[in-house]
Write a structure and sequence with these properties.
This protein is of the alpha+beta class and 219 residues long. The protein is built from eight helices and four strands, in the order αααααβαβαββα. It has one domain: GAF domain (Beta-Lactamase, 2-Layer Sandwich). A four-stranded antiparallel sheet has the order 1-4-3-2, covered by helices on one side.
Protein backbone atom coordinates (compact mmCIF):
# COMPACT_ATOMS: atom_id res chain seq x y z
CA UNK A 1 0.00 0.00 0.00
CA UNK A 2 1.51 3.31 -1.07
CA UNK A 3 1.60 6.06 1.53
CA UNK A 4 1.64 9.65 0.50
CA UNK A 5 2.35 12.69 2.62
CA UNK A 6 -1.31 13.56 3.13
CA UNK A 7 -2.14 10.06 4.34
CA UNK A 8 0.69 10.13 6.89
CA UNK A 9 -0.29 13.63 8.05
CA UNK A 10 -3.91 12.59 8.45
CA UNK A 11 -2.90 9.57 10.53
CA UNK A 12 -0.69 11.64 12.81
CA UNK A 13 -3.47 14.18 13.30
CA UNK A 14 -5.85 11.39 14.29
CA UNK A 15 -3.24 9.79 16.58
CA UNK A 16 -1.25 12.67 18.14
CA UNK A 17 0.36 10.34 20.67
CA UNK A 18 2.15 8.52 17.81
CA UNK A 19 5.00 11.03 17.59
CA UNK A 20 5.57 11.03 21.35
CA UNK A 21 5.48 7.22 21.53
CA UNK A 22 7.97 6.79 18.69
CA UNK A 23 9.98 9.96 19.24
CA UNK A 24 13.26 8.11 19.90
CA UNK A 25 12.88 5.88 16.79
CA UNK A 26 12.00 8.85 14.62
CA UNK A 27 14.72 11.01 16.15
CA UNK A 28 12.24 13.62 17.35
CA UNK A 29 13.21 15.76 20.37
CA UNK A 30 10.59 17.51 22.48
CA UNK A 31 10.72 21.28 22.84
CA UNK A 32 12.39 21.50 26.26
CA UNK A 33 11.71 25.23 26.46
CA UNK A 34 7.97 24.62 26.41
CA UNK A 35 8.28 21.77 28.89
CA UNK A 36 10.33 23.89 31.28
CA UNK A 37 7.92 26.79 30.85
CA UNK A 38 4.97 24.54 31.67
CA UNK A 39 6.74 23.04 34.68
CA UNK A 40 7.76 26.47 35.95
CA UNK A 41 4.19 27.68 35.59
CA UNK A 42 2.93 24.69 37.55
CA UNK A 43 5.50 25.34 40.28
CA UNK A 44 4.49 29.00 40.49
CA UNK A 45 0.82 28.07 40.87
CA UNK A 46 1.71 25.54 43.58
CA UNK A 47 3.92 28.11 45.33
CA UNK A 48 1.15 30.71 45.33
CA UNK A 49 -1.34 28.17 46.67
CA UNK A 50 1.10 27.14 49.41
CA UNK A 51 1.72 30.78 50.37
CA UNK A 52 -2.03 31.43 50.59
CA UNK A 53 -2.51 28.37 52.78
CA UNK A 54 0.41 29.43 55.00
CA UNK A 55 -1.08 32.92 55.40
CA UNK A 56 -4.48 31.46 56.28
CA UNK A 57 -2.89 29.13 58.83
CA UNK A 58 -0.93 32.00 60.38
CA UNK A 59 -4.15 34.02 60.68
CA UNK A 60 -5.93 31.08 62.30
CA UNK A 61 -3.08 30.69 64.80
CA UNK A 62 -3.15 34.43 65.58
CA UNK A 63 -6.92 34.30 66.12
CA UNK A 64 -6.57 31.24 68.36
CA UNK A 65 -3.88 32.92 70.47
CA UNK A 66 -5.95 36.09 70.75
CA UNK A 67 -8.98 34.07 71.84
CA UNK A 68 -6.88 32.15 74.36
CA UNK A 69 -5.50 35.38 75.78
CA UNK A 70 -8.96 36.95 75.98
CA UNK A 71 -10.39 33.90 77.74
CA UNK A 72 -7.51 33.86 80.23
CA UNK A 73 -8.04 37.54 81.08
CA UNK A 74 -11.78 37.08 81.55
CA UNK A 75 -11.20 34.07 83.81
CA UNK A 76 -8.70 36.05 85.88
CA UNK A 77 -11.24 38.88 86.19
CA UNK A 78 -13.98 36.51 87.35
CA UNK A 79 -11.67 34.71 89.78
CA UNK A 80 -10.82 38.02 91.44
CA UNK A 81 -14.51 38.92 91.76
CA UNK A 82 -15.32 35.54 93.28
CA UNK A 83 -12.72 36.09 96.00
CA UNK A 84 -14.41 39.33 97.14
CA UNK A 85 -16.76 39.33 100.14
CA UNK A 86 -17.78 43.00 100.26
CA UNK A 87 -18.62 45.71 97.74
CA UNK A 88 -15.37 47.46 98.60
CA UNK A 89 -13.36 44.30 98.01
CA UNK A 90 -15.22 43.73 94.75
CA UNK A 91 -14.37 47.21 93.50
CA UNK A 92 -10.72 46.66 94.42
CA UNK A 93 -10.70 43.27 92.68
CA UNK A 94 -12.12 44.87 89.54
CA UNK A 95 -9.52 47.64 89.69
CA UNK A 96 -6.64 45.22 90.23
CA UNK A 97 -7.70 43.08 87.28
CA UNK A 98 -8.03 46.06 84.95
CA UNK A 99 -4.58 47.32 85.94
CA UNK A 100 -2.72 44.01 86.06
CA UNK A 101 -4.55 41.65 83.69
CA UNK A 102 -5.65 44.15 81.05
CA UNK A 103 -3.00 46.89 81.45
CA UNK A 104 -5.76 49.50 81.84
CA UNK A 105 -4.86 51.49 84.97
CA UNK A 106 -7.06 54.53 84.29
CA UNK A 107 -10.58 53.64 85.39
CA UNK A 108 -13.41 54.54 87.73
CA UNK A 109 -16.35 52.45 88.98
CA UNK A 110 -19.50 54.23 90.11
CA UNK A 111 -22.57 52.61 91.68
CA UNK A 112 -25.79 54.18 90.45
CA UNK A 113 -28.13 52.37 92.87
CA UNK A 114 -28.34 52.17 96.63
CA UNK A 115 -28.22 48.67 98.16
CA UNK A 116 -31.45 46.93 99.10
CA UNK A 117 -29.75 45.48 102.17
CA UNK A 118 -27.27 46.83 104.71
CA UNK A 119 -24.23 46.41 102.48
CA UNK A 120 -21.64 49.11 103.11
CA UNK A 121 -20.81 51.15 100.01
CA UNK A 122 -17.47 53.01 100.10
CA UNK A 123 -17.90 56.75 99.58
CA UNK A 124 -15.68 56.74 96.49
CA UNK A 125 -18.09 54.37 94.72
CA UNK A 126 -21.36 56.11 95.56
CA UNK A 127 -23.15 57.98 92.78
CA UNK A 128 -26.78 57.02 93.39
CA UNK A 129 -27.60 60.64 94.31
CA UNK A 130 -25.47 62.24 91.58
CA UNK A 131 -28.06 63.78 89.26
CA UNK A 132 -25.46 64.93 86.71
CA UNK A 133 -24.10 61.41 86.24
CA UNK A 134 -27.60 59.94 86.18
CA UNK A 135 -28.51 62.32 83.37
CA UNK A 136 -25.28 61.63 81.45
CA UNK A 137 -25.67 57.87 81.73
CA UNK A 138 -29.45 57.64 81.66
CA UNK A 139 -29.54 56.27 78.11
CA UNK A 140 -26.32 54.23 78.27
CA UNK A 141 -27.78 50.86 77.32
CA UNK A 142 -24.65 49.26 75.83
CA UNK A 143 -20.85 49.63 75.95
CA UNK A 144 -19.84 52.92 74.35
CA UNK A 145 -16.40 53.72 72.95
CA UNK A 146 -15.09 57.04 71.68
CA UNK A 147 -12.90 60.09 72.20
CA UNK A 148 -15.39 62.33 73.98
CA UNK A 149 -17.21 62.24 77.32
CA UNK A 150 -20.02 64.30 78.83
CA UNK A 151 -18.56 66.93 81.16
CA UNK A 152 -19.66 65.33 84.46
CA UNK A 153 -18.26 61.98 83.29
CA UNK A 154 -14.94 63.47 82.15
CA UNK A 155 -14.57 65.05 85.59
CA UNK A 156 -14.27 61.57 87.09
CA UNK A 157 -10.92 61.17 85.32
CA UNK A 158 -9.65 64.67 86.06
CA UNK A 159 -6.80 63.37 88.23
CA UNK A 160 -5.58 60.98 85.53
CA UNK A 161 -2.97 61.65 82.80
CA UNK A 162 -4.26 63.11 79.51
CA UNK A 163 -6.43 60.40 77.94
CA UNK A 164 -7.43 60.08 74.29
CA UNK A 165 -10.19 57.47 74.19
CA UNK A 166 -12.74 56.04 76.57
CA UNK A 167 -15.00 53.09 77.28
CA UNK A 168 -18.23 53.62 79.20
CA UNK A 169 -19.49 50.22 80.34
CA UNK A 170 -22.98 50.09 81.87
CA UNK A 171 -23.72 47.37 84.40
CA UNK A 172 -27.41 46.57 84.30
CA UNK A 173 -29.39 44.49 86.78
CA UNK A 174 -32.60 43.68 84.98
CA UNK A 175 -33.94 47.06 83.85
CA UNK A 176 -31.98 49.00 86.49
CA UNK A 177 -28.64 50.70 85.82
CA UNK A 178 -26.65 49.31 88.74
CA UNK A 179 -23.22 50.76 87.96
CA UNK A 180 -20.99 52.19 85.27
CA UNK A 181 -17.35 51.29 84.71
CA UNK A 182 -15.42 54.09 83.00
CA UNK A 183 -12.03 53.28 81.44
CA UNK A 184 -9.65 55.65 79.68
CA UNK A 185 -6.56 55.14 77.53
CA UNK A 186 -3.80 57.47 76.34
CA UNK A 187 -4.14 56.23 72.75
CA UNK A 188 -6.94 58.06 70.94
CA UNK A 189 -7.50 55.02 68.71
CA UNK A 190 -7.60 52.39 71.48
CA UNK A 191 -11.30 52.59 72.33
CA UNK A 192 -12.59 53.28 68.82
CA UNK A 193 -16.22 53.24 67.72
CA UNK A 194 -15.93 49.92 65.85
CA UNK A 195 -14.26 48.04 68.70
CA UNK A 196 -15.77 44.62 69.42
CA UNK A 197 -17.37 44.72 72.86
CA UNK A 198 -18.17 41.05 73.52
CA UNK A 199 -15.47 40.78 76.20
CA UNK A 200 -16.50 43.89 78.13
CA UNK A 201 -20.15 42.85 77.90
CA UNK A 202 -19.18 39.61 79.68
CA UNK A 203 -17.31 41.63 82.30
CA UNK A 204 -20.39 43.78 82.85
CA UNK A 205 -22.51 40.68 83.32
CA UNK A 206 -20.06 39.32 85.90
CA UNK A 207 -20.14 42.62 87.79
CA UNK A 208 -23.93 42.65 87.66
CA UNK A 209 -24.20 39.20 89.23
CA UNK A 210 -21.60 39.89 91.92
CA UNK A 211 -22.84 43.37 92.87
CA UNK A 212 -26.48 42.33 92.76
CA UNK A 213 -25.78 39.49 95.18
CA UNK A 214 -23.84 41.67 97.60
CA UNK A 215 -26.34 44.54 97.48
CA UNK A 216 -29.44 42.35 97.76
CA UNK A 217 -30.81 43.38 94.37
CA UNK A 218 -32.99 40.97 92.40
CA UNK A 219 -32.05 40.10 88.83
Amino acid sequence: MALNEQTVLAYVQQHPEFLQTHAQTLGIRADETKILSFNQGSLNVLKQKTERMAAQLAQMLDDAERNRSTTAKLLAFNHRLLAANTVGQLAQACSDSLSEDFALPHHVLKLMQAPANKARIPQALQAADNSALKKAWGKLSAPQCGQHLPEPVAALLANKPPLGSFLQLPVWRGNVLLAVLLIGHEDAAYFHADLETDLVAEMAQSLSVALGRMMGLAA
